[in-house]
Each structure stands twice: as structure tokens, then as C-alpha cells.
Amino acid sequence: MNPIPPISGLGSAVALFLAQFTGEHNSLHPAGPQASDIEWLYWVIFWIIFVAFILMITGFARAAARNRTQAAEMLPIMSDPEGDRRATWAVSSAVAITVLTLFAVLFMSVITGKKVEGRTSTNPITIQITGHQWWWEVQYPSPQADQTITTANEIHIPVGRPVVILTSSADVIHSFWAPSVNGKRDLLPGYSSAFWIQIDKPGTYPGRCAEFCGLQHAHMGFSIIAEDDNTFKQWEQQQLKPAADPADPEAAHGKQVFATHACIMCHTIRGTDAGSRMGPDLTHLGSRQMIAAETLPNTRGALAGWIIDPQRIKPGNHMAPNLLEPDDLQALITYLQTLQ
Ligand code: CUA
After folding, report:
1. How far is the CA of 135 from the centre of ligand 1 (A)?
2. The pTM is what?
3. Helix (H, G, I), strand (E, B) or coil at 38
4. Which positions ≥6 away from 102 have C-beta within 8 Å?
5. CB within 6 Å of ligand 1 — which residues?
6. pLDDT tens digits for 67-123?
7. Which CA distances in Å does 2 have to 5, 6, 8, 67, 229?
8. CB under 8 Å to 232, separation ≥6 — which residues?
9. How remote is the CA of residue 145 from the centroid of ligand 1, in Å?
């Protein structure tokens, strides 16, 4: 028998229980209505299991105590029809109570699911999330092409407003999970679905891919940044602009490097000739906190390490190493940092 599964199962149950006293971002710190519904269900099930656990341990303790006295006296086994009848009755009622309880939990689970799904709105913000190995494409669609925002891994939303998330995948099955915002949602290739989120308190809410999707599944993070209406509108306006033309000569040289090396084969920078959608849109890369799907901070050093040898940081990812001259690399990073 392999002892690992029960231990890790118990471990994760204990970890989740302890998490409520430590981390800010887990299912037990709901940030919006959907997560609150799920938290309610968690506690209902928790207390049912807790009561069942106490009853079971009490039963075991009583049985153990009784058996010890009988073993000492070494009584012969005698037929006891009255005792058998009581035992049958006790076991049958315990089975009945267990089945009824499980049906009650199933019922509450369905009700909660319906409630989470039912929190819709006629005036939501729509965001299209596409899973890629191993990053998240984030689009704010609009009927006008020039009003569509495309970014990656960092999802800005206004506080207190319903948001509908449309899902899809460019390659394999991924799963979008921000524990304090909503339950897990699978992103399936060739299949689009929708779900709702809402965050009522400003802040940054981390999320991860929750479905094994290949080598870098563990480095497929994202964050949802909930901000007040004005800050969100400013962000929106900024993201709609094409990239500004570099003002200083070093950044201008960096733009040249971008256009004449492998970068242009995979990335878009709106306002330039770069228009490939293989990798993340970099038009406003400088405005993001992190790079490589929340793997590295968006700093000069991290950008340099990533551009030169992304395979060292996320082995197996789809970006090739770039052997740039030091001057070219520095200029490229300066240019990327101007993309605010
Ligand atoms: Cu994407 Cu795991």
C-alpha cells in the first residue's frame, strides 16, 4: 500500500484549514459574491464532517473501552438475539442518516452552483481569457477593432462591477483559478464557455493554472487587479493607445533591435510593424508588474535574463534564447521599459 495519498489528502485539508488564519488569498477569504457563496458551502460541509468525526471517535472510544473489560474476563461467545437486533437497528439508522446527509450536501452543492452561476448582470465588463502554454492572453473585446485591449497575465477590473469571463484555450486544457474570487474553470481547446466574477475590495488577487498542462504548468500564474472606477478607466485609456515612438536614441536603437531580431516573429507591439500573436502582446509591457506569467518581476535584470535564456527560467517554453550583443540587449530593455 502506498501511504502517500491519505497523508497528502490530510495534509492539504489541514493546510486549507490553517490557511484561513494566515494567507489573504484563499477560498476562505472571499473577495466577492461568488467566492462568498462557495465559502458558505465549505463551512456547511466542514461542520457536518466535524460532527460526524466526533460521533465516530466517541463510538470507537466506547467500543474500545467495553472490549477491554470483556477480554479480561475471557467470556465465551454466546448467542444474543436481543443484542443482534439492537445492533442491526443501530447500523441501519446510521446508514440511513449517512445517505440522507450526503443527499443534503448534494442538494446544497447544486443550489450553491446555481447561485454562483445566477449572479449575472445586463451591463457587465467582458474579458476573453485564452490559455496558452504557459501564459494567459487577456482581451477586452469591442465591436470596434481599435477599441480592443490585448494584454497578458494581469487582468484589470473595476471594483464592485460584475465581469463576465469568456474562456478558450489555444492548445491544451488549462484551468483558471483565483481562489478568493471564484471556483476553478477549465479552459478547453475548441470550446468557449462563460462565467462571472466580481471583486468588492480593491487589491491584487493572485491565481494559477489548476490543470496540469505540460512542463511549465507550475509557472502559469496570473493576477486580477481590482481598482476603483477612475483608476480602471485611466488604465483602459492608456492600454488603448498604440505604443509611443521612442524619444531617446537608446530606446530608438532598442526598437530597431526588436524589429530586426527574433522578437518580431512572435510578439505584437501596436503602432509598429510587429504584429504576431504567438506570444504575449507587448504594446504596454512596461505597465505590467511581472513577466513570464508571474514568474519574474518586471525589472531590467529579470528582462535581461529572460530575453537571453528563457529556457533556463522556464524550460520547455516556446521562446527561443536570444544571443544579443550587450549594447543591443541594453537598448532593447530600455525600449521595452518605455512601453508604458
Ligand atoms: Cu496551464 Cu496548467
Report:
1. 8
2. 0.84
3. helix
4. none
5. 131, 134, 174, 209, 211-213, 217, 220
6. 666 555 666 777 888 888 998 998 999 999 999 999 999 999 999 999 988 888 888
7. 7, 9, 11, 31, 53
8. 156, 157, 158
9. 29
